[in-house]
Amino acid sequence: MPDLAILIALVAVALLFDFMNGMNDAANSIATIVSTRVLSPRYAVFWAAFFNFIAFMVFGQAVAKTMGSGIVDTHIITDQVIFGALVGAISWQLFTWWAGIPSSSTHAMIGGLVGSAVIHAGTGVIIWHGLGRTILAIFLSPTIGMVLAVLLMLIAAWIFRKALPTRVDSLFRKLQFVSASLYSLGHGGNDAQKTMGIIAALLYAHGQVQGSFHIPLWVILACQTAMAAGTLSGGWRIVKTMGSRITHLSPYQGVCAETAGSMMLFLATSLGIPVSTTHTITGAIVGVGAAKRASAVRWNVAKDIVTAWIITIPAAACVGALAYKLFGLF
Questions:
Q1: What 3 state SS string does 185-219 have?
Q2: Residue 28: CB partners within 8 Å, gap ≥ 6?
Q3: Crossing angle for the helix pair 105-121 and 3-35, nearest 10 degrees?
Q4: Which Pfam families would you find in this protein's record (predicted)?
Q5: pTM (2 decimals)?
Q6: What is residue 72's three-state secondary structure?
Q7: Could you give the CA distance from residue 172 to residue 165 in angstroms, rounded to a whole number?
Q8: Structural domain of residue 42, as residue ranges?
Q9: Domains contained in the chain, number
């Protein structure tokens, strides 16, 4: 197959991953606002998709640069490496979507990339500083999200301690439009950039982009569009897990969870750290549930989700390595 045809095919597969990312992570953006019945699922996905798309106007491309040049050495990037990375990530996404598990598309992509690159050129190609920050974020992003959510719950409880419950509920139903928008914006800003970085690395490998590592505008727009389209398609199995199986949410809790999650995502995106939006919002939801009372959280569900987090990178890495070998047979 000619080089150009391979390049186009791999870019198309990368955008398919971005679409699936939006579909899989639609739950992260809309679960709280749907579970509190502030918006119906139909309108919620349109709301989230819009803010997913416009995120590129707010954030830079620091996360994309980390993905494209900060996890593995760009000099060893080949079509075979990218193919392995994408197949590893997509395979894990499909499995977790089918199982209704809120796993991390971010770590599936990183796992697939690392597994494929290591099979190609050995462990020396790994940029441990970039990979280490990402692995550290597996533990920090949900923890920080949880702590922020608890603090926001306590602050809000103190501010509105003398207010009538009906007035508090009415106010927070309106505020949830803002918090859900911020979270969707943070999700679009961090997650879409991961695919941008992969496509940019592929373009550099093909000599289609010259100079220092940067993300072409058409790649930015294509990735934001693919993610928004995926969000529109929804991810209802995971919405149920995120919105009701971990803990039941009120509008007051939903605002605190979304605000805490968006604060974590804004910080990580500005630092160029590719974090998991799934991990972040799950930690925040657990936080608001635990702030009410520890028994309000279904800890067995949370335990299953954490188990999926831990195995995502190694599982996707194994599939990525196998896909790399498979590509070499053609």
A1: HHHHHHHHHHHHHHHHHHHHHCCCCCCCCCCCHHH
A2: 102, 183, 187, 242, 261, 277, 278, 280, 281
A3: 150
A4: PHO4
A5: 0.85
A6: strand
A7: 11
A8: 3-327
A9: 1
